[in-house]
Amino acid sequence: MGMPREFVVFDTETTGMPPGARLIEIGAVRVRGHSVIDRFQELIFPEQPIPERVIAVHGIHDEAVRESKPASEVLPRFFTWLGGTSLIGHNVSFDAAMLASECLRLGISAPENRTYCTLKAARILLKRRSHSLQNLAQEFRFQTGRSHRASDDAETTLQLLWKLQEIGGTQFRFQQLGSGLPVEHYSPQTPKIPQSKKSLIQAACLGEAVDMHYRLANGHMVETRVSPRYFFQRRDGVIMEAFCHISHFYKNYRLERIQAAFPCPDTSAPKVRRDF
C-alpha cells in the first residue's frame, strides 16, 4: 500500500500526560503529493495553570495562552479542518490520546481519522539508539524551528517522513507507519466509580456543583465547592477533574480522598480565571 495522496502531519503540546493533561497547542500541515497546501496552528487555553516542569520543556507560559480559546472551541474547528484525512505524527499514540481524552472531557465524539506513526517506521528502518524527533532532526540536519512547539515539530515530522521514504526506497511501505488505528481507539477507559461516589457522576452530567469534604495529602480536611466534569483512571487510583469555585480554575481530586459530597444550590456556570 502506497502513501495516500493527501494527509495531515500534526503535533500537540500539553500540560502533561493523557488522560489528565490539557492541550495547549495544536500544529498541523496538510500535504498533497509532495507539497504542503495548508496549515493549522493554534494555542489553547487549558483552564488551569501550566506546571513549571512542563514550561521548561516547551516554553509556553500561562501568559502566552491567557487570551486563547479553550479546547471546546478549538477542537471542533480542527476536526472540521481535518475532514476525514489520515493523521501522521511522531509517537502519534500520545497526540491521539490527547485528542481523544479532550473529546471525552468535553462530551464530544472522538474523530475516526486513521493515525500513523513516523516513530514506528524510524525504528524499523533506522534502528538507532534514540529515535526521538530532535535527535533524528539533528542527525539528518533538517531545517527546524523551535523544538517542542507543535507547528515546528509537525514540519520536522514531515521532513522525517520524506527522509524515511527516501531511505526505504522501493522497500518503503505505508504499513511501516502502523495499522492506522482511529483517534477514537485512544479514548481512555471509563473508570469504575464506587456506589458511594455515584452522586458526583450525576452532578457532572447535570452540570451541578457540590459541597465537598476533601482530605489533603497531609491528612488535613478541607471543605470546598466544586463542579465535577471528568473522571479518569491513573495507576494510583481514580481522579475527578472539577471546577473549583474558590480558585476559579479546574483541579484534579483523588476520588479516595473525597470524604463526603452534598448537592448545593449554586447553579452558576463556571467562569475560569485567566490570571493564574
Give a structural overview.
This protein is of the alpha+beta class and 276 residues long. It folds into two domains: 6-186, Nucleotidyltransferase, domain 5 (2-Layer Sandwich); 195-263, SH3 type barrels. Helix content is 30%, strand content 26%. The chain contains eight helices and ten strands. It has helices at residues 52-58, 62-65, 71-82, 92-106, 118-125, 133-140, 150-168, 198-206; strands spanning 6-14, 23-32, 35-43, 87-89, 115-117, 210-215, 221-234, 237-244, 250-254, 258-263. The strands form two sheets. The protein has a five-stranded mixed β-sheet, with helices on both faces. Strands 9-8-7-6-10 form a five-stranded antiparallel β-sheet. A hairpin with a 5-residue loop joins strand 6 and strand 7. Helix 5 (118-125) packs parallel to helix 7. The longest helix is centred in the middle third of the chain and has 19 residues, at 150-168. The model has no long low-confidence stretch (mean pLDDT 95).
- The main sheet orders its strands as 3-2-1-4-5
- Reading off the top of the CATH hierarchy, the class of the largest domain is best stated as Alpha Beta
Largest sheet: 5 strands, mixed
Cα-atom radius of gyration: 21 Å
CATH architecture of the largest domain: 2-Layer Sandwich
Poorly predicted regions: none
- Average pLDDT level: 95
The SSE string, one letter per element, is: EEEHHHEHEHHHHEEEEE
* Number of helical stretches of at least 4 residues: 8
User: What is the overall shape?
Assistant: elongated
**Total beta strands:** 10
Strand content: 25-35%
Structural class: alpha+beta
Instruction: Fill in the CATH topology of the largest domain.
Output: Nucleotidyltransferase, domain 5
Termini gap: 49 Å
Helix content: 25-40%
For the record, the count of structural domains works out to 2
